[in-house]
Amino acid sequence: MTDELRSTAFESKAWPYEEARKLLKRYPDGKPGGEPILFETGYGPSGLPHIGTFNEVLRTTMVRNAFHALSDQKTRLIAFSDDMDGLRKVPDNVPNQAMLREHLGKPLTQVPDPFETFDSFAAHNNAMLRQFLDRFGFDYEFASSTDYYMSGRFDDALRLVLRHFQGIQDVMLPTLRAERRATYSPVLPISPKSGVVLQVPVEVVDADAGLIAFEDEGERIVQSALGGLSKLQWKVDWAMRWVALNVDYEMAGKDLIDSVTQSSKIARVLGGRPPEGFNYEMFLDEHGEKISKSKGNGLSLDQWLTYGPEESLAFFAYREPKKAKQLHMGVIPRAVDEYWQFRTNYPGQTLKEQLGNPVHHIHDGKLPQGELPVTFGLLLNLVGVMGEATKAQVWGYLANYVPQASAEKYPELDRLIDHALAYARDFVAPTLQRRAPEPHEAEALRQLDAQLAALPAGASAEDIQNIVYEIGKTDAFPSLRDWFKALYETLLGSAQGPRMGSFIALYGVDNSRTLIAEALAKAA
Questions:
Q1: Closest alpha carbon to 282 in 313, 315, 256
Q2: How far apart (Å, rounded) are the C-alpha atoms in residues 107 and 198?
Q3: Coil, strand or helix: which one is 93?
Q4: Which residue, 62, 71, 142, 288, is most buried by CB atoms nearer than 10 A?
């Protein structure tokens, strides 16, 4: 760590550094006892993990990396799964729904796996969470709520909750509707009869011994709250966990602002200090609705990684965390190209500019080598007009445009070709529809064809672009935008497209003239 980097990081306005500075303010002299600064993320495994879940770990990791630039203190990151929660409803996007309905109310670790591959539904979803966190190489420790409760690790904190039972009620009851207040309890016993997480009033019999009493199917039960025989209401659970684990940083979605407020009050009742953090905006689907695990709307991690590389997803997650963003297939190409724009700019920037560059936080300042000689958008246009194409054929076209084009020289471009072929097959090809040109457009296309035919071999993309520009400046078109739109719609079959000089050079002059001939045939 250089002095220049640290001093520049102290002044950086990039949001991970701003967040990391909160932790320095929290512990000006380091955490007492030399304990590591503890970062936490939470996950409710009541449904399949989605990009929002991954996003929270990614962003927290970015803050953790930023903290390392500011301080030599050790850190830990715990990814905590709330798998003691009762199954409240059956997700829409899983099999064996009738079976799951038979287990409503039971802790997720006691609900059979509808996919029939793991010991429980929670185990299946936890495995998926770990799989996609591991895929990105996150440095984290996985923690299971069930393990912590049943092992007794939370027992001392549970006794603390029982001792402060009324204080917690005083925080929570004013926030609840009248009918909810009548049955609300911070502690949820596990029924010894049905195994269901009960939502019933609870009486504290002996806080130090951990004994509680409650009614279960008409019978008064006196039972321990310790050792996994109860769990806490989730706002109380969140606060208890902060105190029990001494959590220093945890971010949450904007929809949980009220929950953060109440949990922070409860943490103080328990004698603890709430963690630092901030509230990020939610990802929305293409219709502007919040992404939901139970609905399965939005994108899965596997879907994004089919059509775009990992770093493009990280780029999308980094940008403007306090602004709601739509997350759908259409955002992937732009994310890929914008990531590469920032990565290309990075080496020539000042250190201050680099620390504000998204790619610095995506790669923790250790950028991979390599360059991208064509944009992903241009690649998609090429594959789109090629139709059913192989990777080898795409590389063949790239040889028209990229000197020494090969997978060995451009391994990241090689990966992008796979993504482009998949994206074009599933989302571009079904929408392509080349319209016939209008008479004035047809005349302009004839001029373009004639001038392309007269070009010398090896003409540059810039030479071709100049020809395209000059034709579009004639009185036939109100603006260049109308000319470009006509080219995209008649030659490529889409409303938007690439820089035509680059596309023609890449696709090849002869092949491009064939496209023009096909368009003119429709105008006849």
A1: 256
A2: 10
A3: coil
A4: 62
Answer for the pair 341, 371: CB distance below 8 angstroms, yes or no. Answer: no
| Contact by Cβ (8 Å): 440, 476 | yes
- Write the DSSP string, 356-413: TSHHHHHTTT-PPP---SS-HHHHHHHHHHH-S--HHHHHHHHTTTSTT--TTT-HHH
DSSP type of residue 285? -
pLDDT band at 296 (very low <50, low <70, confident <90, very high): low
- Please state at what angle helix 332-345 crosses helix 411-423, rounded to 10 degrees: 160
Which residues share a beta bridge with 215? 220
Contact present, 386 and 393 (Cβ < 8 Å): yes
* Helix or strand (DSSP H, E) at 232: strand 230-232
Angle at 126 between CA 37 and CA 210, to 5 degrees: 70
Instruction: Find residue 214's DSSP bridge partners.
Output: 221
Q: Is the pLDDT of residue 262 over 90?
A: yes
Q: Is 350 exposed, middle or buried (0-12, 13-18, 19+ CB in 10 A)?
A: exposed
pLDDT tens digit string along 330-388?
999 999 999 999 999 999 999 999 999 999 999 999 999 999 999 999 999 999 888 88
Which residues lie closer than 8 Å to 502 by C-beta, 6 or more apart? Answer: 374, 378, 401, 461, 465
Closest Cα to residue 39, out of 69, 15, 61, 17?
61
* CA-to-CA separations, 108 to 144, 145, 344, in angstroms, rounded: 11, 10, 46
CA 306 to each of CA 56, 236, 517: distance values in angstroms, whole numbers, following the listed order: 21, 39, 35
With contact defined as beta carbons under 8 Å apart, do 243 and 228 qualify? no
- Length of the chain, in residues: 524
Render the burial of 391-413: b for 16+ CB within 10 Å, e for the rest. Answer: eeebbebbebbbeebeeeebebb
Phi–psi pair at 71, nearest 5 degrees: -150, 150
Residues 150-169: pLDDT tens digits?
999 999 999 999 999 999 99
Rounded CA-CA distance 491/507 in Å is 12
